[in-house]
Amino acid sequence: MTDERRTNPARRAAVRIGGQTIGPGRPVYVVAEAGVNHDGDAERALRLVDIAAQAGADAVKFQVFQADRLASSCAETAGYQKQTGARSQRDMLQRLELGDDALARVRQRCQARGLELLATPFGVEDVDRLLALRVPAIKIASTDLNNLPLLERAVATDLPLIVSTGAARRTEILDAVERFRRWQATPRLILLHCVSCYPTPLEAANLRAIRSLHELSGVPCGFSDHTISTQTGAWAVAAGACVLEKHFTYDRTASGPDHAMSL
Fold first, then answer.
1. What CATH number does residue 114 fall under?
2. Which domain range does residue 227 map to?
3. What are residue 195's phi and psi, to 5 degrees?
4. Alpha helix segments (H runs only) across 142-190
5. Looking at 59-73, 98-112, 246-260, which range is the least confident one?
6. Residue-wise pLDDT tens digits, 88-138
């Protein structure tokens, strides 16, 4: 062990998810982000698990939510979601939900294919659904960096936490890190640099922020990649990323909010 690793806690930071230890100097943890690219269809969700396994990912990640709790009937879709033809955010999300039975099938397929199942909960109740699936970690979306009820429930699980920081100011990230320290959760915390632009232009990826985020927090950091490039991940690793999260799909021309920005 070098003198720097002895004296600098940030250099020693590591988090274990399933059978893999994640941190500087260790193999990069690759998360294949299925998200909602299953279109609400359980069979397509299983197909996405198979695709992720064939690609050699360490984990496949989905999004778990209840549309009626997450969006009002009058909330408009975002610009990049207009092509779905949905009347509202709630209408779109209702089409993209996976029920508990479907998620249980996804978990079984992940076990059969040797993948970890990860998921992003969008409500306190959704955390309990993830616990029923026995996920090895919980992913928090950028939009919930300041969602205290959700964060407190996630921290209370004692599971590792992967938290995205898209659109957050430096002060908001500092505040979040301090909260996790108060909750004694930093030993199991991973932060992801993220640009909340879909898709993200290469010139806006700002990969230097990965190292800055690590220096700011002292925890392992990675990149939630919303570019459509196949090279950005390698550049992110060169910039210090310990985790790579990338959207993928079965068909980039399919109708849905995220297919066009996925691999």
1. 3.20.20.70
2. 28-261
3. -110, 115
4. 148-156, 170-182
5. 59-73
6. 777 777 899 999 999 999 999 999 999 999 999 999 999 999 999 999 999
